[in-house]
Automatic annotation (TrEMBL):
Domain DEAD-box RNA helicase Q: 122-150
An example Gene Ontology CC term for this record: cytosol
Organism: Zygosaccharomyces bailii (strain CLIB 213 / ATCC 58445 / CBS 680 / BCRC 21525 / NBRC 1098 / NCYC 1416 / NRRL Y-2227)
E.C. no: 3.6.4.13
GO BP of this protein: maturation of SSU-rRNA
Catalytic activity: ATP + H2O = ADP + phosphate + H(+)
Residue ranges constituting the Helicase ATP-binding domain according to the UniProt record: 153-333
Enzyme class: hydrolase
Protein name, entry field: ATP-dependent RNA helicase ROK1
Length: 557
């Protein structure tokens, strides 16, 4: 497979341009489905992050940039005298770096590793960083970098390939977005696609796109052209194909693999100028579901300077092998335990005896006030997700269900209502297990035990994000004796209390490891319901009568 082909080393860092940047700006974005129109965003206020500073000079002490003196001119209408402000980077040497890395359990390996940053201001002192990008960070409340950002941003700015594994909710998105935006600004070419971000799901692609839009406001490239970010939606794909939109219009595109490949095959997009490619949820993109598509994408990006970044909360060793083989002199960044669960999540296991026991457990949680919204419940299949939805809806709970059979419009609407607090409990399949950043989810319930430790880490990672506390409860029955073992190990590794009697239970034999590796631990489960068959029929009849009455009322209106 071509994926194992080693491509040439990534792009070199260039200085930011000092082109005059007008006060007003607009960014045209082609958003997915419900946002198909190009949007104009006008921002009038600019945060004066650098007041009083006229010129900042810093000598980059690091090996790679030690011979460069960097100068950045900052507007200050009142002052006419140029001042030199000596801003020392907070991390000035290997000892500082060692102490910082120890504080966040950072394990960084590779050749010639650059120093981390300790604050976003270090980006100014060490790199010719775009002032407006920094302002956008501050304006959006990002004042201090998270550990993965401390490491990932300078690495990428030095043009290194990066393989990064950091806990769920720890800020990986900005760790790859910030340098990608900066390097797009640095690229001298005025037109053409320079950056690609690949995500396994549309929901996650939408979310990354929204972050990229926030951070790219007021940023102009050469000839006062605003930096253009787009999500490759169905409609944008069609417009590119019919040449209604130029394929040179966008600087950065966020896409799912298949949609991007379609656009390349239709000659709607040319990836030959792409200089940076980011694989978010890299282990998913390099597993058997996506690996061929990912390979096709890499083959279409044939600029020898292509820089590659891979990010995930879980990077199993087989994926790491592939990653190492396609990257050039990568730096490997591990924050905390590799593949460990986020330490802010209180993890629990609940034995439910059998399938009926799971429903009873949920109802008990409701009665005892432990069912505190917002809640996400994960199930292993669409059929089961739908069945649980009907059960809980019948119980009068504020629930909805999201899975691959729902239309994109329905999916977007459900996500919006969950984000806004209108919807309290979201039932879903693994389609929402990765990357989605719902703020303040209180509780994640694994109604069905996930089949891999990785899936478990991502699912429960929908709570406990951005240093908040969260809770995850995993239901299991006798049938889950094997699947529960890797989960017990994750729990123990992340410092959660595991009853002593589970120690023996968690040991995996060689054969069991093989079964799990092949994904053969899935079990046959009884359908979800605590209701007798005769009652179920009555209930179904009642439900269809209610729906018919609703339809009639709607028609009368
Ligand atoms: N420097 C920062 N300061 C404050 N908040 C931040 C910072 N960086 C990221 N965040 C916030 O932290 C939350 C989690 O970030 P993000 O979605 O990037 O996590 P992640 O590591 O990609 O998680 P996952 O593995 O689940 O994809 C987001 O709400 C994001 O806005």
């Amino acid at each position: 497979m071509d994926i194992f082909k080693v491509l040439t080393r990534g792009a070199s860092l260039k200085k930011a341009n000092d082109a005059a940047k007008p006060a007003d700006f607009s960014i045209a974005n082609d958003k997915s489905n419900d946002h198909t129109k190009a949007d104009e965003i006008n921002v009038s206020k600019e945060l004066d992050f650098f007041h009083n500073k006229r010129i900042m000079r810093s000598v980059e002490n690091k090996k790679k940039g030690s011979d460069r003196e960097q100068t950045m001119i900052v507007d200050d209408e009142k002052e006419t005298i140029e001042q030199t402000i000596d801003m020392q980077p907070k991390i000035a040497n290997e000892e500082d770096a060692r102490i910082l890395r120890k504080s966040y359990k950072g394990n960084i390996s590779g050749n010639d590793i650059p120093l981390p940053i300790k604050s976003f201001e270090d980006l100014i002192t060490r790199f010719s960083f775009e002032k407006k990008l920094l302002n956008n960070l501050i304006e959006n409340g990002f004042t201090e970098p998270t550990p993965i950002q401390c490491e990932g941003i300078p690495l990428a700015l030095y043009g290194r390939d990066v393989l990064a594994c950091a806990p769920t909710g720890s800020g990986k998105t900005l760790a790859f977005l910030i340098p990608l935006l900066q390097q797009t600004i640095d690229t001298k070419e005025t037109q053409g696609l320079k950056g690609l971000i690949i995500s396994p799901t549309k929901e996650l692609a939408n979310q990354i796109f929204a972050e990229a839009v926030k951070l790219s406001q007021k940023i102009f490239l050469a000839k006062k052209r605003p930096l253009q970010v787009a999500i490759l939606s169905k409609s944008l794909g069609a417009k590119l194909k019919n040449k209604a939109v130029s394929n040179k219009k966008y600087d950065i595109i966020v896409s799912t693999p298949l949609r991007l490949i379609d656009a390349v095959r239709n000659e709607a997009l040319d990836l030959s100028d792409v200089r940076h490619i980011v694989f978010d949820e890299a282990d998913k993109l390099f597993d058997k579901t996506f690996v061929e598509q990912t390979d096709d994408i890499l083959n279409a990006c044939n600029d020898p300077r292509l820089r590659k970044s891979m990010f995930s909360a879980t990077i199993p060793s087989n994926v790491e092998e592939i990653a190492q083989s396609i990257m050039t002199d990568p730096v490997r960044v591990i924050i905390g335990h590799k593949e460990g669960a986020n330490a802010n999540i209180d993890q629990q296991l609940t034995f439910c005896g059998n399938e009926e026991g799971k429903l009873i457990a949920i109802r008990q949680m409701v009665q005892e006030g432990e069912f505190k919204p917002p809640i996400i419940i994960f199930l292993e299949s669409i059929v089961r997700a739908k069945a649980l939805y009907h059960e809980l809806m019948y119980d009068g709970l504020n629930v909805d269900v999201l899975h691959a059979e729902r239309t994109q419009q329905q999916r977007n609407k459900i996500i919006e209502s969950f984000k806004s607090g209108d919807l309290w409990c979201l039932i879903c399949t693994d389609v929402l297990a990765r990357g989605i950043d719902f703020k303040g989810v209180n509780l994640v319930i694994n109604y069905d035990v996930p089949t891999t430790a990785q899936s478990y880490v991502h699912r429960i990672g929908r709570t406990g994000r951005n240093n908040r506390h969260g809770k995850a409860v995993t239901f299991y029955t006798k049938l889950d004796a094997l699947a529960i073992k890797p989960i017990i190990n994750v729990m123990r590794q992340s410092g959660c209390e595991v009853p002593g009697w589970m120690d023996g239970l968690s040991k995996l034999s060689k054969r069991e490891k093989e079964t799990l590796k092949k994904g053969e631990s899935r079990v046959e489960r009884k359908p979800i319901s605590t209701v007798l068959r005769v009652d179920r029929i009555k209930r179904k009849r009642k439900q269809s009568m209610i729906e018919a009455s609703k339809r009639r009322k709607q028609e009368e209106k």
